[in-house]
Design a protein that fits this description.
39% of the residues are buried. The strands form four sheets. This protein has a five-stranded antiparallel sheet. Strands 2-1-3-4 form a four-stranded parallel sheet, sandwiched between helices. A four-stranded antiparallel sheet has the order 5-8-6-7, with helices on both faces. It has eight helices and 15 strands. It folds into three domains: 86 residues, 3-Layer(aba) Sandwich (Rossmann fold), CATH 3.40.50; 129 residues, D-amino Acid Aminotransferase, Chain A, domain 1 (2-Layer Sandwich); 65 residues, 2-Layer Sandwich (Dna Ligase, domain 1), CATH 3.30.1490.20. With 290 residues, the chain is α+β, with helices and mostly antiparallel strands.
Length: 290
């Protein structure tokens, strides 16, 4: 009998929604004839005994999830997310570079080193990208360290904070929209799709406003109600990164679609699967087919 390891940490279990999703994943895997172990960081040495590993904790090359992914890969154990996907998606310069190489549609994007931060260069950004523009610190996740700026002074205020954390800054064309598409892709195929409705008080799917975290609304959308070019773009973006599980964020403005992010370890517990009840069946089967 095959054994599936689900790698978790305390934060993974912090909400009822996350815990419910994990239990559902376990039940699905057991219903398909697999044994399931929840593996916490303290139990990481159990990974070589698994036949497949599903990471359900925040992935980052600087934390233990990456060690777990590397350990699985070293022992030839199929793993979601794989180390390469974690490295690419955790660094926006790396991620956007992969998308650019495959000619995937993204907003106009420019990478700036700390040596590029002159008034003249920043002024030219507004000519190239328009006003406002988006500034991102490359290691950001969950919309942290993503800011909208309207002028040179605002850019430098943000850049001075970000450059303490990274040698690079991403400047990007602002694409206005009231919602993002989230296209879930597994092994190059559509897994699910939903709309993330942007809160009216921000331009991001998650933000701190007056000391309170506001979140986007989530609406699962059936495949036949998704614009076909959005699905195609989601698949193209995911394939540019790898063959694993990804959540691709897309803005569809006036008929033109642009990839904003490719996320490894995408959220599955917030209602994304409403119209796609077999998400975990597909993930488990994909892992054991690798």
């Amino acid at each position: 009998m095959s054994r599936l390891g689900i790698f978790v940490d305390r934060k993974t279990l912090a909400s009822a929604e996350q815990l419910t999703a994990l239990i559902h994943c376990r039940d699905v895997a057991e219903g398909r004839g697999h044994d399931v172990d929840f593996i916490f960081p303290v139990d990481i040495n159990k990974i070589p005994k698994m036949d497949a590993l599903f990471i359900r904790a925040r992935t980052d090359p600087m934390n233990v999830t990456y060690v777990a992914a590397q350990m699985a890969a070293f022992h030839g154990i199929p793993v979601i997310d794989d180390p390469t996907s974690i490295r690419i998606c955790s660094d926006k310069v790396n991620m956007y570079s992969h998308l650019m190489k495959k000619n995937v549609a993204i907003p106009k994007t420019i990478f700036l080193s700390k040596n590029d931060l002159s008034v003249e260069r920043v002024a030219s950004l507004f000519d190239e990208l328009g006003t406002p523009l988006i500034v991102k610190e490359p290691s950001t996740s969950f919309s942290l360290r993503v800011e909208k700026v309207d002028d040179i002074s605002g850019f430098f205020q943000v850049a001075r904070r970000f450059i303490r954390l990274s040698d690079w800054i991403v400047a990007q064309q602002y694409i206005e929209s009231k919602y993002d598409w989230r296209v879930g892709v597994l092994g190059g195929n559509l897994l699910y799709a939903c709309k993330y409705t942007i809160p009216s008080v921000t331009f991001k799917i998650q933000a701190s406003v007056n000391g309170h975290i506001v979140y986007c609304g989530v609406e699962s959308i059936p495949e036949n109600a998704i614009p076909p070019h959005v699905v195609r773009l989601g698949k193209e973006a995911a394939t540019a990164v790898g063959n694993g599980l990804y959540g691709v964020d897309i803005k569809n403005n006036n008929g033109d679609a642009y990839v904003i992010e490719v996320n490894d370890n995408p959220s599955l517990e917030s209602g994304e699967d409403g119209c796609y009840p077999d998400i975990y069946e597909q993930i488990v089967d994909h892992l054991f087919a690798l």
